[in-house]
Amino acid sequence: MKKAHVFRMAAATAAVAVAATACGGGSGASDANVDLGSGPAKAGTVKKDALKGVNLTFASYGGIYQDGQQKAAIDPFAAESGARVLQDGPTDYAKIKAQVDSGNVTWDVVDTDAIWGQAQCGKLLMPLDYTIIDKSNVPAGLASECGVPAMQYGMVLAYNKDRYGANPPKGWADFFDTARFPGKRAIPGIPNDPAPGPYEAALIADGVAPDKLFPLDVERANRKLTSVRSSLVFWKTGAESQQLLESGEADMVMLWSGRAYDAIKNGAKYDVQWNQFMPIMDVLGVPKGARNPKAAMALINYYLGAQQQAKLTELTSYSPIHTGAKPKLDALGSAFLTTSKERQAQALPIDAKWWAQNQHALVEKWSAWLGG
Amino acid sequence: MAVVEKADRAPAPSVPTRGRTGRAPRERGAGRPAVLLIPALLLVAVFFAYPLATMLWRAFTEPDTGFGNFTWFFTTDANIDVLVRTFTTALWVTVVALLLSYPYAYAMTAAGPRGRTVLTLLVLVPFWTSLMVRTFAWVVILQDTGVLNKTLDLVGLGPVHLIRSQTGVVIGMVQLLMPFMVLPLYAVMSGIDRRYVQAARSLGARPLTAFAGVYLPLTLPGVAAGSLMVFVSALGFYITPALLGSPDDALISQQIVTQVNGLLQWGRGGAMGVVLLGMTLALLVLVALATRRTGKKVSL
Asked: What pTM does this model have?
C-alpha cells in the first residue's frame, strides 16, 4: 500500500518540501528546554504542554497509511504536547541522505522500511533513547537500536478463487508449480527493494527448510525464479499489485497484505493463503542531526500506545505492534492481523539483521536479475 | 527607491531634441538586453548549472576520486544492456512517431480552417493533460483484461499481450511525445509553397516522384527538429517505462533511481547521468553537423 503513493505524490511532495523548508526552518524550543517530566516513560503518553512552541515534521509514505497515522497518533500528540507537527512525504531515502549530509535536517521522525532502518543505524539514523521511549509492550525482538516498529504487515500469497477454489495453493511450492497450478503469477519487481519476498519464496519452493533459509542462497533462488520467468509478471507499486487482483489479470500474486485487503474489500475474487507468509515492518526512526531528538522521541513514544495502535489498525488494516492493542475489526480485518497467534504460527521467520547486513549486494543482484 | 528615481528621470531624454531625434533612446537601450538576461541566468545558474556541476563532481569523487564509477558503469553487463535498450527504445519511439505524425501534420496543412482547428486541438488537449494521468490511462487500455483486449476478443482477434512489454512502452511513449513531432512538422509544412509540387507535376513528375523529389526535402528541417526533440526526450523517460514496461524493459533513468534512491550511491548515479548527458550532447552535435550539410544541399 504505502509505496504506491510514491509516484502519485511525487509532484505534491516537491511543493510540500519547499513549503516545509520554508516554514519548518527552526524549532521554537531547543533540546535543552524540553522537559518531558520525571519517572519512567509510558507508551502512549506525553506530559501536557511539554512541547509548546516546538515544531516537528513527520515523514511517512502518504495515502491511507499516513492519514491513519496522523489521525491515530500524530494529531492527538500535537494536541496534548502542544507541539506543532507537520506532515511530509513520501519517505525518500535520498532526501534523508541529503538532509543528513548537508546538516539541514527538516524531517524529525521518519517512517522507513525496517531493514533499511537497521542498515542505516548510526549512519543516517541516530540511536534511540529508550528512557524516553517505552518499548515494554512492543512484541519481543521487534524494536532495534535505531528504530521501533510503526506497524506490521506481510508479504502474502493471494490466489484467484474462481480458478483454484476447489484446490487452492498451499504455499510457495505451489506458487512455483506451474504444471499443477497453471496460470499467470505476479511478484514484486522493484529493483531497489528485494526484501523480503521473492528470494525466500523461491528457496522454500526449491525445498529449503524454513529454519535453514538464512543465509539466503541467492544463486539458487535466481535459478528457481528463472525457471518460471515465462509465467511471471512484475508489479512495481502497491497500486499496481492491487490492480492485478481487481482486474483478475494474474491468477496468483505475491503482494503486501494491505493491498490484498483493499482489493478483496473492493470485491476482487481472491483469497489469501496465510501459510508461509512473510512478516514485514515499517519502523520509526530519527535522522542523525535532527534538531530536537528528545521531542521526536517523545512523539515516537506516544505513537506506541495501545489506543493509538488500535486506532491505526482500524483505519489502515495494518497490524498493531502493541501487545495489548484491541482494535475493533470485522471478520476480514481480523483475518489480516499478522500479529495474531494464529498468523504468527504460519509466518516464515525472516532474518532482518542478515538482510540489513547484505542489503546492498542483494539489491545489485536483484536489479541485475530483474533487468536481464 | 532607486527604481522610482530612475522612472522619474526616464522621460527626460525621450523628449525629442532637434537634430538628434531617435538616436538617444536607441543608445540607451543598447546596454539593456544583457541586464534583462540576469534573472534568467541566475535561475539557470542556481537551479540547473549548480546541481549539474554537483552531479559531475560526485561522479568523479564519490566514494573515491577517479574514474571508478565510470569503470563500474562500462564493465557491468547489465548497465550496457540498459544503455543500449534506452537508445533503441528511443529510436523506435522516434520512428513510429515520425511515421504517424508526418501524414497528420500534412493533413493539418491541407485541411480547411475549421478542420485545422479540430486537428490542432486533438494534438494539444492530450498535450495539456498530465503525463501521469495519460500513462495510467494506457495501463487501463493495454492490460490483458483491458479495453483494447476485450474489444479484440469480441472480434475474435484474441488477446494480444501489450502491457509490461517493450511494445507497450513504445505505444505509450509515442502517444506522449507525438505533439513534439507534429508541431515542428506542421510549422515547416505550413510554410512550403504547394506550387512547387504542382510545378513538378506539370513538368511530368509522377505524384510519388514529386513528393520524394520536391516536398520531402523541403520538410526535412521539420523532420530533423521533431525527431531530435522526441528522441532526446525519450532518452530520459522514467514513469512511462516504469508503469507500462516490465523490469526487463527498464531504461537508464530507472537504473539511476535505483542507484540514487535505493542504494544511495550518488557517485554511480551521477556517472550514469553524465554518460547519458554526454551521449545526448554528442548526438546533438552530430545532428547539427548533418542538418547543416543537408541544408546546403537543399539551398543548392
From this structure: 0.82
